[in-house]
Amino acid sequence: MFSVRSVRHYRLTAVSLLLLAAVLLILNIGLGVHYNKLTDTYFTLDDTERISKELIDLQDTYKTAVERMKSTKKRLNSNISHQKLTSWELEHQTKRSNDYKSHIDKITKEIETMRSYLPMLSDGCKHCPAGWILMNSVCYYFPLKSNEMKTWKESRDFCQLQGGDLIIIDSQDEEVYYYEDASGMMPQSNPKSPKAFWIGLSDVQEEGTWKWWDGTFLTEGYWNDGEPNDVSNEDCAALYPKANFFKSWNDVRCDTQMKWICEKAPKSMS
């Protein structure tokens, strides 16, 4: 059986629940009334239409801003592309300018070289045949035309018909002297190319025994590294205008076409 105390406890709990329910009901009613008032105050039909119009205007503004952004981006890309083309053109024109400058410098040096030969050519007219130059009291012939190429024997035949022969280099001073003159007459070239000058040296009679055309033995040579190597019967010597004149000789096949240097005694120097 329940005690009086328990009954009172349950009654108190029930009353509390009823009061709580009443309070919740009142709050619910109050919120409903307040919501209705808000609806009546802030969300009239005109306001709804106004808000809808503002939303449409905002969308239009957004679309316009997006279109402007796209247009601006397109112009920016066009400017970047144009700037890139301008940069490429500037690079191209700068390279052309440098090439022209290099070409002008090369021509200027060649002109100065030819000017330095004018006195020798002038004296050569007095003491040497036409086309020969006078240097160190000796007449020399350098073929200047680009298509003047001969074999070693043909070069000797040409020199002999002119009363001379291929040059003989029997001292360091002469090597330097001929090298500088040959360098002035011919731009630097790679070994084994035909752009070199025959000299009067060969080992045709005995392989490995190098002699000048007058029969004297070679005492000091100015061979390139690894030369002479007698690859494919290379029995004739040529002078190549290289940076290091101590390494300016190569042995070459005697039937190779290249330039040559003749020498001969001048006419009376009196």
TrEMBL record:
InterPro entries: C-type_lectin-like, C-type_lectin-like/link_sf, C-type_lectin/snaclec_domain, C-type_lectin_CS, CD209-like_CTLD, CTDL_fold. Residues 135-263 form the C-type lectin domain. Keywords: Disulfide bond, Lectin. CDD domains: CLECT_DC-SIGN_like (cd03590). The keyword Disulfide bond applies. Signal peptide: none annotated. Pfam families: Lectin_C. GO terms for molecular function: carbohydrate binding. PANTHER family: MANNOSE, PHOSPHOLIPASE, LECTIN RECEPTOR RELATED. This is C-type lectin domain-containing protein. It comes from Oreochromis niloticus. The lineage of its organism: Eukaryota, Metazoa, Chordata, Craniata, Vertebrata. The gene is LOC109195855.
